[in-house]
């Protein structure tokens, strides 16, 4: 059971990483791929893939209600690489498409969080080599309308 908890902790920690896959999780638990699926389902009532999808959809629901981001941006932030897969799984889980969900739930509370803040908080901005026009000289580090 301890090994299964370790694998579940990996899902809970790395749910937004597209590289979180069954083989990686099974390796954390020290199980073969198929034994891990059976043991996880027996312990938690759903397969590791279902659990990971539910974690991602739960987070997407939060972002759809609170962040001013497109459905595509939210899809990628929560770890899906395909908008079609995200929309289909979202609809299966909630009974609504992401756009329908947003239309139903937005406007019932506080204003939406600006997308740039949500992306920054969720780690959606890439930093490092190839991430922009930063070349160490300071060129490209300012916004176009920013004073020198």
Give the SSE layout.
Blueprint: H1 2-14, H2 22-29, H3 33-44, H4 48-66, E1 67-68, H5 71-77, H6 83-94, H7 98-105, E2 113-114, H8 115-122
Parallel strand pairs: 1-2
Helix pairs in contact: 1-2, 2-3, 4-7
Walk me through what this model shows.
The chain is mainly α and 148 residues long. The chain is 59% helix and 3% strand. It has 8 helices and 2 strands. Strands 1-2 form a two-stranded parallel ribbon. Helix 1 (2-14) packs antiparallel against helix 2 and helix 4 packs across helix 7 (98-105).
Briefly, what is this?
This protein has 8 helices and 2 strands; from the N terminus they run H-H-H-H-E-H-H-H-E-H.
The topology string of helices and strands comes to HHHHEHHHEH
How many alpha or pi helices?
A: 8
Helix content: 55-70%
Task: Please state the overall shape, judged from the principal axes of the Cα atoms.
Answer: elongated
Give a quick set of tags describing it.
148 residues, mainly alpha, 8 helices, elongated, disordered C terminus
């Amino acid at each position: 059971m301890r090994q299964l908890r370790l694998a579940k902790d990996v899902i809970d920690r790395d749910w937004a990483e597209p590289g979180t896959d069954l083989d990686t999780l099974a390796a954390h638990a020290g199980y073969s791929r198929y034994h891990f699926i059976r043991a996880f389902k027996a312990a938690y009532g759903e397969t590791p893939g279902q659990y990971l999808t539910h974690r991602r959809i739960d987070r997407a629901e939060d972002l759809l209600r609170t962040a001013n981001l497109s459905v595509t941006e939210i899809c990628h932030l929560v770890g899906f690489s395909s908008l079609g897969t995200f929309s289909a799984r979202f609809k299966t889980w909630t009974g609504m498409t992401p756009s329908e969900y947003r239309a139903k739930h937005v406007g019932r509370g506080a204003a939406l969080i600006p997308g740039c803040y949500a992306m920054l908080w969720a780690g959606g901005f890439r930093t490092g080599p190839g991430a922009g026009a930063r070349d160490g000289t300071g060129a490209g580090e300012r916004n176009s309308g920013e004073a020198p």
